[in-house]
Design goal:
The chain is α/β, with parallel strands linked by helices. The chain has a 5-stranded mixed beta barrel with strand order 1-3-4-5-6. Strand 4 and strand 5 form a beta hairpin. The longest helix is centred in the N-terminal third of the chain and has 54 residues. It has 27 helices and 24 strands. The chain is rod-shaped. Helix 2 packs parallel to helix 6 and helix 21 crosses helix 23. 43% of the residues lie in helices and 18% in strands.
Amino acid sequence: MAENKQSLIVPINQLLPPELFILPVRHRPVFPGMVTPLVIAEGKLAEAIENVHKQNQYLGLVLQHDDTNTEVGPDQLFKVGTAAKILKRINLPEGGMHLLVNSLERFKINSFSLSSPHMLAKVEYQIEATEVRDKELIALMRSVLNQAKEMMTENPYFTEEMKLTLINVEEPGKIADFVCSVLNLKREEFQEILETFDIRRRLERTLQFLARELDLVKLQRKIQGKVNQGVEHNQREYYLREQLKAIKSELRGPETRDKDGEYYRQKIEAAKLPPEANERALDECSKLDYVDPSAHEYTVIRNYLDTILDLPWNVPAIDAIELPYARQVLNRDHFGLDDVKTRILEYLAVRTLKADVKGSILCLVGPPGVGKTSLGRSIAAAMKKKFFRFSLGGMRDEAEIKGHRRTYIGAMPGKIIQGLKSTKSRDMVLMLDEIDKLGRSYHGDPASALLEVLDPQQNFEFRDHFLDLPFDLSQITFVTTANTLDSIPEPLIDRMEIIRLPGYILEEKMQIAKKYLIGRAVSDSGLSKKNAPVITTQGLRFLIDSYARESGVRRLEKEIQKLYRKAAAAHVEKKSFPKSLGPKEIPKYLGKPVFTRADEFTTLSIGSALGLAYTSMGGATLTIESRKFPGRGRVKFTGHIGKVMNESAEIAVSYARSLEADEKFWTKNDIHIHVPDGATPKDGPSAGITITTALLSLLRHKKIKVGFAMTGEIRLSGDVLPIGGLREKIVAARRVGIKKVIFPFDNLRDYEELPNDLKKGMKVFPVKHYSEIEKLLF
């Protein structure tokens, strides 16, 4: 079998043999008057053609019924074919041959004289007239030519060679054959034209086929026009982008770069973002295709896409929380703080029973150095979560929380999104340190920005200004720290669970030093256990009592580190250094003690009283002093006191005046009341009974009893009202060796809830009215 491709018409007028070698062809028949290339596979057929080529060089090309058959017999061929002459034969290197044949005339097979190994058939030729005088035939021929020309203008696949050939053909039969050969007909329709010997009938069928094809071409053009109209805008934009790329490529020269748009599209597809984030990211990717890489906008888009792809969008798996492990971690890292640890373990227990619980918002309030920040790290370790911390101290711009809008140069996301990007965890522990030191400026109010962040009813759709996409923060465990709640807005306090961390007493500081601080100081100084000096129990007690009386242990740690640095220096210089450090040795290396036991209560003079206060630094003792001078009855208050404390002092003066009605004293003298440590801000009403006591001591010219400290708010009637921070104040009293404390009767329940270690050795006096204090102290 052979496959054919038709070409130009070549008029031939030759005598043809009555018997032809039959060559089956596939797909479509070969029309007369065509030069056609044929490819013959290696085998018996190729050998037979070689013999034919040596003899008369004529073949009979006949279409087979089924193109899939490889072995074709006489009964599998059509009865009408085309006689052809072999013009050229080329043997192929891999076997077989390539033929170039000129098809001449139609023939009809009368009989087969040989069917194997190849087929020979006796044929009858149909010679067509070349001159046409019939007017109707001429009209048909012109109609075919006109429609063929119209078809050529509509169909771009008609070549100029085909057009020229059609113009030069004059015989009507050959015109019909050529036109049909270039139409898109079925194989049966091709064979029908070949078997139509009547020229008139052949032209009529050709006209029908032409009309059908012309209708199809017009319909195709109509459909294509609608499609082109719909996509014209997109194509125009695409072509312009391609041209822009080519121009940029020329400007850059041979420089090559990654296709950033495609790179980001692949990452977006793999990230499985939420629908809104996915749509926004793809929109930004499309901009990369036409933004110049040297433009500022290009970098902004890339930074934005990097931020989106670095965020943990997928919901985290709920990990099992092991309470024994969590308790072990908290006890390992921190001494004491039982209330805080209990609350954390309760929260973890709830997370164990209810996996979909929202992230908690804890606020750790306490003086500096009690371990608030390190406790946040321990919470993360106990929960087996990642930890991220940033400080809010001095922050004045809400953009630090919610990010900058991308219209600004150097815009970046806020700290919350930065933390998520850094940890790549949606259920991390996020610490907002020093929340009480937030500022406010014309840039905005960061505290107000935190209202959304710390509200579980809102933060599941938190929108950072830079990202401008909703992100769920409800899985985050927020831990905030503060020294005091006074400067925190009330709506913000309402969103947090307050956990107070009291200051440490002497015994707790000793345990912390032995378990944590000394070992760390030895390691940091480079000493080993063998050559490191030992701080004795008495020496440690002396160190705490004389150099580190603050609520926390930060100052204590610094003093211990100082001792071991000096030991390291002596070891390197090979100088002698005591192997044990006691109360006698420590002052040689740390200098004169900062505090002495007598300072707080043995130096009280007339007009002085020892009060207890709760400040941002924790519990503290305050010696309130009063003095009189000749004058006109004026009262002066100093010591950096706040409005509330100033009013409390005025109430104390009025009450003291009601007790001592010596008008000469009040009108002939000016009174000056001072609260020492003037650089430290002080406020609150709890100094009321202390100021009253100092004034009565001044009026009566009598010292109060030694060893008492007091706290409580006073009314004009003399009633003593409850105060806050009792625990911290008791700790402050113990720290300076005070064992007797006067406080309001309504705070007795608070005192009873204190740990036994804190109450041990203390003698307390709960009072309802100032007259009870008067009996105790005067």
